[in-house]
């Protein structure tokens, strides 16, 4: 009985550790660095995927150029970048 309990605890811990591993990136743009672009005329709040922390974060986008790692909402960022 004690052995069964130990095995159950080990299996539970293994499942928790596996679930906390970094998530895979779905869209290739998510791997790009944050890029606010060179302009400041039409600044707006956008979201980018921070691959170091595996989280979507807010930033101020200047309104021109930049790159594809720019999303209109946290939900859009998560939908594209977090599987």
Automatic annotation (TrEMBL):
The keyword Disulfide bond applies. One of its GO terms (molecular function) is serine-type endopeptidase inhibitor activity. GO terms for cellular component: extracellular space. Residues 1-19 form the signal peptide. Keywords: Disulfide bond, Protease inhibitor, Serine protease inhibitor, Signal. The keyword ATP-binding does not apply. Pfam families: Kunitz_BPTI. Residues 30-81 form the BPTI/Kunitz inhibitor domain. InterPro entries: Kunitz_BPTI, Kunitz_BPTI_sf, TFPI/VKTCI-like. It comes from the Eukaryota. PANTHER family: KUNITZ-TYPE PROTEASE INHIBITOR-RELATED (PTHR10083), TISSUE FACTOR PATHWAY INHIBITOR (PTHR10083:SF328). This is Protease inhibitor-like. The lineage of its organism: Eukaryota, Metazoa, Ecdysozoa, Arthropoda, Chelicerata.
């Amino acid at each position: 009985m004690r052995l069964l309990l130990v095995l159950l605890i080990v299996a539970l811990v293994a499942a928790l550790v596996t679930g906390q591993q970094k998530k895979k990136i779905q869209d290739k743009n998510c791997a790009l660095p944050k890029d606010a672009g060179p302009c400041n005329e039409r600044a707006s709040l956008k979201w980018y995927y921070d691959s170091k922390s595996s989280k979507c974060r807010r930033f101020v986008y200047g309104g021109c150029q930049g790159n594809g790692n720019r999303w209109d909402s946290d939900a859009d960022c998560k939908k594209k970048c977090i599987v």
